[in-house]
Every structure is written in structure tokens, then in C-alpha cells.
Design goal:
This protein is α+β, with helices and mostly antiparallel strands and about 400 residues long. It has 3 domains: about 160 residues, no CATH class; about 80 residues, Aldehyde Oxidoreductase, domain 3 (Alpha-Beta Complex); about 130 residues. It contains 15 helices and 9 strands. A 6-stranded mixed beta sheet has the order 1-8-9-4-6-2. Strands 5-3-7 form a 3-stranded antiparallel beta sheet. α4 runs antiparallel to α6, α10 runs parallel beside α12 and α11 runs parallel beside α13.
Length: about 400
């Protein structure tokens, strides 16, 4: 849960990681200057002479490094804007947060900002050193500059890989699979709501506007244990709420003065911390962009559909209308058939006249059905009937229609 709260904080404030790097650089500059001022005699004995420089030369070197790092940071931001434009125009606006909050991107910005902070503060403090005393500030600055060059080269390679749609689809699928693995560990999934008629509910409204991003289940459980009550959340993760939307009900035999809304995180946008539907939706949007008349890229769409099928096959294990945690916390969730429909219905409509796309959808349904329980197999077959009904009969020829029928009958 701590990791999820950290990811949520990073999604709201991307300056946190660069800020940490800058603080570390400031501390490093303070330590190095302290060594140069108070321990220069020891430094001369331990550090090779080639790494020691005069204060005037140090000022020149650090000034050059600061200017160079500022230029590299500007180039990095320019590259970021190009990549963000590409992501928004060719893939989906929802994919932007994947690159903005990417670990490599944040670390590169942090290293560049840290190097600049070190150089500037070292220049500020170097005047405290006697002109005749050797210092190591310049040597440390050169090492930091070399580290920045390595990160810059790594960032360029990362950008080149990021704009490749096949690798992007694969990363989004991995993100969805990782989320599914985490959600499997949260409570039991049932289709029938537990009977709570023996207790009087106390209704809580949201008080905020936005999307429900995170339920802190562990803290909700601790709250329920402490107050001997049952907490029923009324909206699933990813739902949009306004200030007067009911989001929870507390079932207790006595009044409760504490508030659980601090354990329900609401924000301006959906994020894939606990929102499985949103994680799969991003794959769906890339597929839809590939099917757009201007793009006309069916191979990318087919690749996206296959990865969606792989993710949904794993997500089928999370089927159920409610998540119940230790009979104390009840969380509603979308049943699998709703996720299946909302993922594929736009794809089926856009690709209703393309045999390759429709066959890929049936392949995805086959992935979901294979080795699954009868209930999921029946839901996949029911949706397959819906897909077959979407086929443009007057456009496809007899061979195409026969292939689609044969693939449906295999479900």
C-alpha cells in the first residue's frame, strides 16, 4: 500500500524525484566545500595531484559545466515535448502520463538538475577557500558531468524505444499484468452483496470532484476493526464523482465520529494504480488510433488486440461484482462482462468491415476462454455472438463470412 501511495504522489507531482536529486546535489556540494575548506592538508596527501585544481581554474570548470548542463537540460525538455506530442497525436492522450512519470525520464531530469545545482552552489561557496589551497570541487564536478553524459545517451536510447508502438503496447500490457497480480491479493470476489440489514447505515458523500484513484484498503480495514463496523464503498475504482455523490456507507451499532474519506483518494484524472479498466483502456485507445481512417494501420491494431486478449485472460480471474475484505470492507467492481464489452465494442465497430481485425478479436476471445471456468467461457462466447452481429454482411464476401463463423464456433 505504501508503494501505491508513492506512485499516486509521483503521478500528481513529477517534481518530487528531480527535487530529491537536487537536494542530494546541494548536500554533496556542501560536503565537498567543507572538505576543501577544513581538510585541504589531508586532501593533498590522499588525492592525486592531477585531481586538485586552483580556485580560479575550479571556477572556470564549474562555470562551463553549469552552462553545459543547463543546455543539456533544455535539449532534454525539448525532446520531451516532441515525444509528448507524438504520444498525444499518434497513440492517445492517456499515454502521456506513462512517459512523464517514467522512471528513466524522472531520473535523467533529476541528474541534470542535480549537476547544475552542484555546480552553482560550488561556485557560490568556493570563494571561502584560500586562493593558494588546492580543491577537489572541480574533479567532483567533472565526474558529475560524465555521469550526466551517460544518462543523456541512455535517455536518447530510451526515447527512441519509447516511440516504437510495438514496445509501447508491450509495456502497457506488462503494466496491466502487474496490476492484475496485485489486485488478486485484495479480498474475495463475489457476485452477491453481503446482507447488512441488521445494522443502520451512515452515508458519506465525496466532498470532492474527480475520479476515484485509490482505496487504502489496509487503513480501511484498520478503521473497521477499531470502530467495530462494516465499511461499504459504493463506487468502483475509476468512477467519476461530484461533491454530493455518496461514496461510502458505514454499518455500525453506534455513532462514528471519525472520517474514512482521507483513505479514499480522488483526483482529476484516472491512473492505473488500482484501476485495471483504465490500464486496459489505454491499449484499446492505441488500437482504435491504428484503425482510424488517417492511420490505417491494421497490423498495429491486431497486435494491440492480442495484447488486450492476454491481459483480459488474466483479468478474468478477478470476476465478480464485489470485493470483500475480511467481512469488514466491501468494494464494488465492474463484472468481467462489462470490462470485456467496454474494451472491445469501439474496436468492433471501427473494424466491422475488416476481416483481419475481427478475426483478431476472436483470437483474443479464444485466449480468454482457453482453460478458463465455464462462466467466463460463456461470457466470452456471448460477446463473440455480439461481435459476429457487428459484421458488415454487405461488404464482406462469402469466404470472409465463413471464416468469421468458423472462428466463432471454435469458442
Amino acid at each position: 500500500m505504501l508503494k501505491e501511495r508513492t506512485r499516486l504522489a509521483l503521478s500528481r507531482h513529477i517534481w518530487i524525484v528531480p527535487g530529491i536529486y537536487s537536494i542530494v546535489a546541494l548536500l554533496l556540494a556542501s560536503i565537498v566545500i567543507w572538505i576543501d575548506i577544513s581538510h585541504y592538508e589531508t586532501v593533498k596527501k590522499v588525492v592525486p595531484d592531477r585531481l586538485l585544481t586552483s580556485t580560479s581554474l575550479t571556477e572556470t570548470i564549474l562555470g562551463s559545466i553549469a552552462g553545459s548542463l543547463l543546455t543539456m537540460t533544455s535539449i532534454t525538455f525539448s525532446t520531451l515535448m516532441v515525444v509528448l506530442t507524438t504520444y498525444s497525436g499518434q497513440f492517445s492522450p492517456r499515454i502521456l502520463q506513462n512517459f512523464i512519470h517514467d522512471k528513466v525520464t524522472l531520473r535523467v531530469l533529476g541528474v541534470f538538475m542535480g549537476g547544475f545545482v552542484y555546480s552553482m552552489f560550488s561556485l557560490l561557496f568556493i570563494r571561502e577557500v584560500n586562493n593558494d589551497d588546492p580543491v577537489i570541487s572541480a574533479a567532483v564536478g567533472v565526474c558529475i558531468a560524465l555521469i550526466c553524459l551517460v544518462f543523456f545517451a541512455h535517455f536518447l536510447q530510451h526515447v527512441a524505444n519509447s516511440i516504437q508502438v510495438t514496445k509501447l503496447i508491450d509495456r502497457l500490457a506488462d503494466e496491466a499484468m502487474e496490476l492484475i497480480g496485485k489486485l488478486e491479493q485484495v479480498g474475495d470476489r463475489i457476485d452477491i452483496r453481503p446482507n447488512l440489514t441488521d445494522k443502520k447505515p451512515e452515508r458519506l458523500i465525496s466532498g470532492k470532484r474527480g475520479y476515484i484513484q485509490l482505496y487504502e484498503v489496509e487503513k480501511l480495514l484498520a478503521f473497521a476493526e477499531k470502530h467495530q463496523c462494516v465499511v461499504e464503498l459504493t463506487k468502483p475504482i475509476g468512477a467519476f464523482v461530484v461533491k454530493d455523490t455518496p461514496i461510502a456507507q458505514l454499518y455500525s451499532t453506534q455513532p462514528i465520529e471519525s472520517d474514512i474519506r482521507e483513505y479514499i483518494k480522488t483526483g482529476e484524472e484516472r491512473i492505473p494504480v488500482q484501476d485495471l479498466e483504465f490500464a486496459i483502456q489505454k491499449l484499446s485507445e492505441i488500437t482504435l488510433r491504428a484503425l482510424a481512417p488517417g492511420a490505417n494501420d491494421p497490423n498495429t491494431a491486431i497486435d494491440g488486440i492480442r495484447h488486450i486478449g492476454m491481459a483480459l485472460a488474466e483479468a478474468s480471474r478477478l470476476d465478480g461484482k464485489y470485493i470483500v475484505c475480511e467481512q469488514k470492507v466491501i468494494i464494488p467492481q465492474r463484472p468481467f462482462e462489462e470490462i470485456l464489452y467496454e474494451t472491445f465494442y469501439e474496436i468492433c465497430y471501427s473494424g466491422r468491415d475488416r476481416v483481419s481485425v475481427l478475426l483478431a478479436v476472436f483470437d483474443a476471445l479464444e485466449m480468454i476462454s482457453h482453460g478458463n471456468n465455464p462462466a467466463i467461457q460463456e461470457k466470452a462466447r456471448h460477446f463473440g455472438d455480439y461481435v459476429r452481429a457487428k459484421v458488415e454482411e454487405d461488404i464482406l464476401n462469402e469466404t470472409d463470412r465463413r471464416k468469421i463463423t468458423e472462428r466463432f464456433e471454435q469458442l
